[in-house]
Amino acid sequence: SSMAAVGAMSGMAGQAVQGTVTRHLHEELQKSTEVTVAVAVIRTLTRAIQRSTATTVMGLEKDLHASTEELKRSYPTAISVSAASELFLRFVTRTTALDVSDFEALKQHLIDRGNKFAEISLASKAKIAELGERFLHGGCVVMVLGCSSVILNLLETAASKGKFFTVIVVESKPGTEGLRMYKALERANIQVTMILDAQVAHRLEEVDMVLIGAEAVVESGGIINKVGTYQMTLLAGVKGKPVYVAAESYKFSRLYPLHQRDLSMATEKVEIGSSELVVPLNDYTPPENITLLITDLGVLTPAAVSDQLIQLYQ
Amino acid sequence: QRQKRKSLVPRETQVKSVELFSHLPQFDHKPLEKSFQSLLFSGLHPEVVKLGQAYANLSISGANARCLAMLAIFKLVIEDYNTPPGKVLTRDLTNHINIIIQFLIDCRPLAVTMGNAIRFFKTKIGAIHPSTPDMEAKKFLVDEIDQFIQDKILDASNVIADVASAKIQDGDVVLTYAFSTSVLRTLQAAHERGTRFRVIVIDSRPHFEGKKLVQRLCFMGVSCTYAYITSLAYILPQVTTVFLGAASALANGTVVSRVGTAAVAATANAFNIPVVVCCETYKFSHRVQLDAITHNELGDPDALCEVKNRPDVNDLRNWNDLQNLRLLNLRYDAVQDKYITMIATEVGMIPASSVPVILREYNTGPSLL
Fold first, then answer.
1. How high is the pLDDT of residue A10?
2. Do A256 and B353 touch (CB under 8 A)?
3. Most buried residue among A49, A89, A189, B13 by CB atoms closer than 10 A?
4. What is the pTM of this model?
């Protein structure tokens, strides 16, 4: 759904004169359906470094900062864009703080790392799959929502290791991403059923665990994810089912929502019959509703997320 | 192990103590009256004695206020200090300061803020090379204190106000308890941003500190409601967010604050209302507390039996003669981490579980935490 946010925004951006950086991000996103927004953002910013005519570290950082600001302006509601931008900026500042003796070498190092990010991202997903598949015991029933590539990868990895388990996919309207997940799991020869959004409580009693992805993991240890996530975790909590979140550490963000309305209102228009609804893309799931987070940094409790962020931003 | 220092102030006969709290220093009525003259002659700076009095009679109270007052006195003492011949500044000044601290403790137990500031100050004294001339050493110490006040108290408070006020939006109803300078600054910042919100101040006996907050807020033009703590459950359904101050934040995520705060936080939690604690990092402590019994401060039991302007309410006036009656006036209570949604500090918004992380990560070099 971060793609949806970016898609919605790029429609708008198309009307106005697009900045170079925004155009590049658009190109990166078109390249492959598999690419995540974060990877596209980092590739775009890496290109911005390549294009930069700055001859000093400060000049380079200034150019980079301007690029990230442009991206944030073009996609004000896509959290993955700002999270990935912040991450890359932080990486650049830390690297430049270390050794600035050879500017050209430094610049090349940043470009190499930026280009490698896609690999790092894939490696994160693989690490998460390795850690996460241990949570699936033989014969277990897992409930999932939407179509998270991280979760899909985790389930495919578990299946490829010969594990037997069943998946219940929630339809996830209005985008019906659940259908994509359903088809992908079928292709992987995993036992899967699809249910209505309204059936979550109805089917929870037969479920062993809930597995969800995240758009962003926030400082409180909660997550921002496709609307419907909060509802599902609330019900799972009431029914005593564990909720596991699978997310890469580059999604960690310093946001701290207190209420649902604290999220920037990324919305989409949905037609129901002859009516048109304005529907939020995301909701906020507080840390109390999350059992554990499976990340490339390891399996963390919600409290550990802030620990990581404080260390990262020290 | 803390050295048990001899009390400088002679103690009166103990009032009847409540057994569960008998391990705490018992409240002493007017500890300074009888010994004022002798204290002045014992060499204590008269400003120090005045400060002790202000602490004892609660005319200076609150974590920030007490710490600022103490640091102001330290600066005065340093300015008037001269190393006696044959002595070394670091050792002699430290002894001098220890006597002052012991006196202040006798007047009223130290606040966590004061303890942390003292530790910082002593580290700075210890860093002075013995060959440093007095004037230079004194200037160094005064500058360090000023820097501490600016960074850890004043600037920190401003950053917290900025950060926490962003959480208040148009149409919000904010509830707060008693009087906290951090919360006041936050509400002021939100008001200055132009946010439309109103405040409900909850208050309690015996000190009615909330009245001070209401006065300040009304003066600023903020809409206020004032209610007593007994009506808390009635009021809470209207509230969007609760903002609370802190005396200190402990390593297990517990927040120590004015007695009554825990009740407000727990009840807000029952109504699913987020609770934000505004707390500067210099209030953080390595201590771990599970309850409000092991560490606390006892206030004046007589305050419980008097009601201002109501001489007719006097059934308890002879409470001391009643064998089976004890009066307990606790000053602080402990808010469990599970009731706290977020702590707003000058280094960021953190969950209560991250207090030990801040203690660990920001504990670089000769520090105060």
1. 47
2. no
3. A49
4. 0.87
Residue A311 in contact with partner chain B when CB distance is under 8 A: yes
Position B331 scores a pLDDT of 95
Nearest to B67 by CA among B28, B121, B106: B121
What are the pLDDT digits (tens) for A180-239?
A: 999 999 999 999 999 999 999 999 999 999 999 998 999 999 999 999 999 999 999 999
Interface predicted TM-score of the whole assembly (ipTM), two decimals: 0.85
Helix ranges (DSSP H) in B127-242: 134-148, 156-165, 181-193, 210-220, 232-235
pLDDT at A268: 82
Distance CA B359, CA A285 (A): 28
A124 vs A313: which has the higher pLDDT: A124
Contact A314 B361 (CB under 8 A): yes
**A 9-28 → B contacts, CB under 8 A:** none
A220 touches chain B (CB under 8 A): yes
Which residues on A lie below 8 Å from B346 (Cβ)?
Answer: none
